[in-house]
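Deviations from the work plan: none for this task. Representative record:
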Amino acid sequence: MTAAELGFVALTPTAFLRRSAVVFADRTAVVDGDRRWTYRQLLDRSARLAGGLRRLDVGPGDRVAVLAPNSAMVVEAHHGVPFAGAVLVALNTRLTAGELGYILGHAEAVVLLVDRSLVDLGRAAVAASGRTIEVIVADDDGYEALLADAPPLVEPVDDERSLLALNYTSGTTGKPKGVRYHHRGAYLQSLAMAFHSGLGPESTFLWTLPMFHCNGWCFTWAVTAAGGVHRCLRAIDPGEVWRAIHDEGVTHFDAAPTVLTMLVADPAAAPAPAPVTVAAGGAPPSPTLLDRMAALNLRVTHLYGLTETFGPSVICEQQPAWRGLPAAEQAQRQARQGVPNVLGGGLRVLDDDGVDVPADGATLGQIALRGNNVMAGYHLDPEATAAVNRDGWFLTGDLGVLNTDGYVELKDRAKDIVISGGENVSTVEVEQALCAHPAVSEAAVVGAPDELWGEVPVAFVTLRPGADVTAEELRAHVRTRLAGFKVPKAVRFGELPKTSTGKIQKYLLRAGLTSERGEPT
Amino acid sequence: MTAAELGFVALTPTAFLRRSAVVFADRTAVVDGDRRWTYRQLLDRSARLAGGLRRLDVGPGDRVAVLAPNSAMVVEAHHGVPFAGAVLVALNTRLTAGELGYILGHAEAVVLLVDRSLVDLGRAAVAASGRTIEVIVADDDGYEALLADAPPLVEPVDDERSLLALNYTSGTTGKPKGVRYHHRGAYLQSLAMAFHSGLGPESTFLWTLPMFHCNGWCFTWAVTAAGGVHRCLRAIDPGEVWRAIHDEGVTHFDAAPTVLTMLVADPAAAPAPAPVTVAAGGAPPSPTLLDRMAALNLRVTHLYGLTETFGPSVICEQQPAWRGLPAAEQAQRQARQGVPNVLGGGLRVLDDDGVDVPADGATLGQIALRGNNVMAGYHLDPEATAAVNRDGWFLTGDLGVLNTDGYVELKDRAKDIVISGGENVSTVEVEQALCAHPAVSEAAVVGAPDELWGEVPVAFVTLRPGADVTAEELRAHVRTRLAGFKVPKAVRFGELPKTSTGKIQKYLLRAGLTSERGEPT
């Protein structure tokens, strides 16, 4: 197809901003503290960001990273970086300089846009990357100066399957993997999110979800498509969330159950003046939480997805018939992961031979997903890509059952991942950090249930003969290498249970924790 | 791309039914009189329709026509015909056998699915086509027998730009043109319609709009995508519409202002128990109509599009700021055609040299549209396709102005078309029918304003020397050849005003009508 033929335009999520800058030109697009941009301004600033990047010699396909809390600059980067033909790498602000440096290096970033609050971390990350990276700080002399006199630039997208963004995930190998997002997938996923959430020009979307998680599950573009307001929130402050709900007409937000739990427990919690649409992802919301949310006029839909699926590719679509059920049964149904979203490329649960398990709500298998909202692959890692690709189906590494009504329910993870407060923790990565300590012989990390965080990492460690170290010393050691949420909340010493072939039996470690009612010491 | 790669599935609107048959398996999909299908049944019946068609030797790319009022069979055909890899040709039930025969012949239809109420018309159309066409009547011995023991068939779609449907439009050349709909365009337009209309699993969509108009503006697939109810309506009966609104929980319907005018004037009109979302297309709703609709709890959005754009590609997106305006100003804004829908491939207003006119609300130009919801071209008519394609922009033939706020407003039609009750009438076609009468020397047809129908065709005729014929005789003559809505409501005799080069000055004829306050005799 060429642009000169009728009926074909390459799909790209940045097209939504070009439309909204006309249709909703004078409506508020972004609120970030005292700053407010209209859609016309957002397009103008994003296009000038693209022009400024081009002046820095950023060309098509080059990688531009952003390290910032939810803020106007990140919304602009989601549009302006692709406008330059470049690829966005949105960095998790909770990582250490070493972790970020690895990502900057792997992505071969040429520019880093960094918030003022994170300049030290950003510079240390650049140093750790060993690369020459232009650092642009979000202040008058940096980011604003870059935009100030730059000519607007909007590069056309010729190939909708070309690279739009790299999103790094904690893999099971211990090193983050760069998930390749294509323009087509992000466009479609944005439309699906706008549709399922009922976003519209009267919506105000509160950014409780980090924009660096799967590009904010593509809501960075979905809210723009709908012409709604991006209400930035730089950090989760429950009082601030409630104030925004009551005083600023917030209609939508997305969050992990950990955040929702904080919200309902906050002293400022009071029923919202109008129903608020809340998407919960990262872990199933508990029946208690769903009850409390409902009483606060927060209408929760449970979503499930992975970085590899542009965020939520599965949605617990609520059936009108459920309303007739007792509350506990309703909650049980709502806590399931659900069905493919409207893009619906397919969901299967496969046994070890790749055969579909029966939809009996009991037979465990691996969840596989297919569709346009699946990544094109892992960046510079064809082997890892091949390992998760079964004839076009993406193997999620998550284990679940398929219910008779077609809803999938997660039961366990085949991947060695702990999900703590919505953040993925690679247990292998933590184990490697522990083993780097001279006193440690071997280590195993598992997730322990936690009321607030969902799960927390807990370490089991065998010391070298004669060595001596305290749990606190080991935790401090890990903290120098990894982000805080990855540091084991508890460390236990002793021999590790193993199979006859020497494989550590993590299920025994987990079972021990559960039998202690989830309170590791 | 191949199916074995990650992150790519060919877009097709039939995928929505495959999803909804799982997600909304036991929910009502279609209500047609006493018949009700769940989504599971709709998929099953559609797949068996595909299997039955295959038994009739219908192969990929073959054309299958359907001639029926809004009914379950038409919904099934929108899914089952593509499931067989075949191409749907939904016929306008208001056409004559001769008109339909031309379309069946041009489309090279191999099968005609026909409603029982239209069997005679269908058979006459097949005879007029001169083709051998298998006629399947929607009764127990025909359509139901075809489905009864057929194996389900769902052919995969490999090329999303391949042909999904042919929709015939009244062109300016006097012969209908077959507009080529591709799977990709229909998929995206369906998503856009579902998004803008706020369709969801709790929606009940009343089929006031004919399903044969642009495949029901793609709502045949959009309602399916949302898991809503297709409530069929075989004919516009205002009392029945009001009964459905009050007793069956109708949440949405689409219609031309002509139909809306009938509805608000009906004795059964009473405010809907809950707000009903109404999309109005075909002509701008008047301020009076908008006022009356609002009082009846019907929330109207004005849409604009053409057969060539999968129905509404332009939407009068309502701005929250308008609510502060006086009612008359609100209505004036709502009556404009608007802005591109969320697919937004672009809208321009071009002068004769192809240069954009200023957005001043005054300078007239031709409206051009671009995007994935533009046809791939006219079937078997590369010349007509080339004539409307300017570097990938579709020239609509409609003249309008661009307002300062980016909203387009139709002022006139470059094409010689009269729109009467939402149906397009090619004036050339009517003129040719008139000239086929032995008494007629030449004829010109223009649209006269009409309170109910928006416009009606009116003929100006010059007789051959010595010939004699009455207006009623000429109307009867046209009625034997063309659909009733194309028959001139009035015929005037005399010389036609012409330019020095002999071109008929239709604007003078129109001006004469308008100065008589739109009441042709």
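DSSP finds 17 helices and 25 strands in chain B.
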